[in-house]
Structures are given as C-alpha cells and as structure tokens.
Write a structure and sequence with these properties.
The complex is a heterodimer of chains A (265) and B (222). Chain A contains six helices and no strands. Chain A is mainly alpha-helical. Chain A starts with 11 loop residues before the first helix and ends in a 12-residue tail after the last helix. Chain B is mostly helical and 222 residues long. Chain B has one domain. In chain B, α2 crosses α5, α3 runs antiparallel to α5 and α5 runs antiparallel to α9. The chains are: A mainly alpha (265), B mainly alpha (222). The interface between A and B is medium-sized, with 27 and 31 residues.
Chain lengths: 265, 222
Amino acid sequence: MSAPTVRPSRPRWLDVVGILGVVALGFTVWLGLWITPPDVVQGNLARLLYIHPPLATVALYWVGAVAVGGSLLYLWPRTRSLFWDRLAASAVEVGAVFSALTLVTGSLWGRPAWGTWWTWDARLTSTALLLLLEVGYLALRRVPADPAVRARRCAVAALLIAVDIPLVHFSVDWWNTLHQGGTFIDPGFKIHASTSMSWTFLLGFVAFSLVFVWLLGVRYQVEVLQDAVGDQELEVSLAERWDEDTEHIGGDLVGQAPAPGRGAP
Amino acid sequence: MWHDAVLVAGKDLRIEARSRVALWQVVPFAFLVLVLLAFAIGPDQTALRRAAPGIFWVALLFSTVLAIQRSVAVESGEGTRDGLRLSGIDPAGIFLGKAAAVGLQLLALQLVLWAGVTFLFDVRVHVVWLAVTASLLATVGLACAGVLYGALSAGLRVRDTLLPLLVLPVLAPVLLAGSKVWEAALDGNAASGTQWLKILVPFAVIYLVVGIVLYGPLQEAA
C-alpha cells in the first residue's frame, strides 16, 4: 500500500516575483558595494544603509499590514477562509526573519558607528520586543489544534499583538532615543544624497519588498502542504505500520503459507 | 453584562478566599522576586534605591503571570469552561468579572509590594497620588491584557510555558511606564511622571475594550 502524496502547485507569478526579487537584490548589492561612492561622513559604513532601512520597513509595515489584514478578514464571518489565516501566519514567520535581520544589520552598523553592538536605543529595543512578540505568536501557532480553532486563536493573538505595537513604540521612544530620525528623506520627501546613492536606496526597498512577497508566497504554499500532510498523517502512519506488519508476518511465514500483502511470494 | 461581571468576579474571589493560593503562593513569590533582585544588585543602598521602582514593577509583572495562570486554572476543571459558556452569561461579563477579580488581587499585592520596597530598599514615595494613579491604571491594563492572554492559552497542554512568553513582551510598556512614574514619584517630580501616564491610560483602555469585544470569539476558540 503506497502512502498518499501531496503535490505542491506553485503559481507561475510567484516564480516571476522570486526571480525579480533576486535580480533586484543582486543589483542592490552591485550598486551598493561597487558603484555608489562612500559617504562623506560615514565612509563605507553607509553602504549597510542600503539594506537596513528596507529590512526594517518590510519587518514592520508590510508584515504588519498582511498579518493584521489577514487576521481581521479571517475573523470577519463573511470573508472567513483559511486562506487569510495561512497568509497572516506566513507573514508573521517571514516577519520574524526580517526583524531578526534588521537587528543583526543594525547591530553590525552600531558597532563602528556607536562603538557598541547593542545599545538600549528606542528603535533597537522596540524591534527586539517586536521579534519577541512574533516568537510568541509562532509558539502559539505550533500548538497542535484543529485548523479552524488554531486559526481563530492565532487571528485574535495577532490583533492583540498589533494593538500593543504602537504602545511599545511610544513607550520605548520616550524611554530612550539615540537613533537618528530620517537622514535620507525628510518629511517633505526631499532626498539628501547623491543620485546613485538615492537610487540604490530606493532599489533596496523594491528588492526587499519583492523578496518579502516571494517568501510570503512560498511560506503560504508550505503552510498549505503542512496542513495537507497533517490531515493525511494518520493515514500515512497506518499505511506504514500495515507495511511493517505484513513484512514481519510475511517473513515468518515464508515457505509455510501464502501471506497477504508484500509477504506473499 | 455588569451583573454577570459581578457574579463571575464574586465566584473567582470566593474561590481565592477559600483556596488562599494568592495569599500563600503569589504574595510570597512577589516578595521572593524583590529579595532575589536585591541580591543581584548587591547591598549598595544607593544602587538599590535607584533600582527600587524597576524591581517593584518586575515583581508585579511576574506575579501577574502567576495570578493569570491561577485565574485560568480555576476554569480548567473537567467541563468547567463549557459550564460557564452554557450558563448563558455574557462573554463580556465573564471577561470583566475575571479581570476584576485578578485586578483586585493585584491591587492587594501592590500594597504588600509597596510596603516591601519601602522596608527593604528604604525609599519613600513623595508624590503619593501619582504612584496610586499609576498603580490603578496599570492594574486595569495588566488584568485585562492578562485575562485575554489567559483565555488564549486556556485548554492548551503547554499553557504554563506558553503564557509567560506571550504575555510578558506585551506587558513591557506597563513595566517601562510604571517604573518611570515611580521614579518620578520617589523624586517628587510630578511633571515627568504625568507624561508616562499617557502610556498607561491607552494601554488600560485598549485592552479593556478589546477584551469586551474579543473575549467571545476567544472562548469559542479555546
């Protein structure tokens, strides 16, 4: 008896987004490391800023929008579908990776710029708390439950976490602020950098946004497959157990009598 | 809703009065945290005085987790939650009642902690109204957020390990704001403390409103 299989079906547009994302990321690296000039004040250190702010933007805004939107749409009876639940969960998981990368790149920049890997600066602290909140959500997500129960539980958790984020942001901001405000772009959207630098900076945002969409799509597919495997797990285990039993019985009975299944000569 | 809340709060408080878990476990635990953190800081009186507001709020936060776990455990008996749902009590009433019961226990605990901090760290609160306002606001926020997360983890086998991971980062703004208000209250600097109440007020209001709205769906999910 063969175990049931789950066939992945990845839409073509997702592959296109993935390729575009990788290409854009490659261009960002090329422009950032070889083409753009070093910064007047920060020298080569400024090159890290082509990836750090885009990572942070994705980690906070894109992830937040998808996670909150997905959770709300799941809880709303008219739009209730596991699609929204899986999308929100995938966003949080990808978000945790982006938050961690934001912290790592910020830390790498902070060591030469501020003289320390870690400082209790407002944005560092609030990003660290965001990561912990995401880890909490993912831990809740891992608790085995019926998909509908898990979806509802996780949707509520995502909303509870979302209402906390502005409070975390403000409290930590008041608590200590070392981090600079906007340096590239002021509120009037006036860019203070050379042309190649500002284009690389903008390309970084596009590249990481594309990579986010791609990872989100892939993670969503994995979520679908995981649920499908979860549904078939008992069936698969029973099939394997049955195979073991028949092999065993077959081995014992070889030469005595025809045995069922694989044991039969 | 309010009548239901009073019923549920009365039930939880009666159970506490009879079992005395809060008195014999949560209060000594809070005291233990005070003493352990003092050990970590060392016997330097100046350092201890500076750390006193933070120690007070850390002890309160950890004890809140215990109080919430207890509040969830009360409903974890065979069919108890189903019984509560079948009783026809408004979910918002259950939420408010459980939050009120936890809140009253936390207020009592804060009185004990206040005495403990005064006695052990030799500090005096100069702006009493500020510290009391912070305590009242924080209690509403901690109890509401706590009961919500408690409901989220109710019925799970990993409840006891999951709850602190879920709830402590969420309560971080209360820790920050509470500590700062207490610092200001100890220094007699009311103006800087009032600023931090602006974090505690929305925290309390948001979790109160969200709890009233979301407790129903959460109960079904659990």
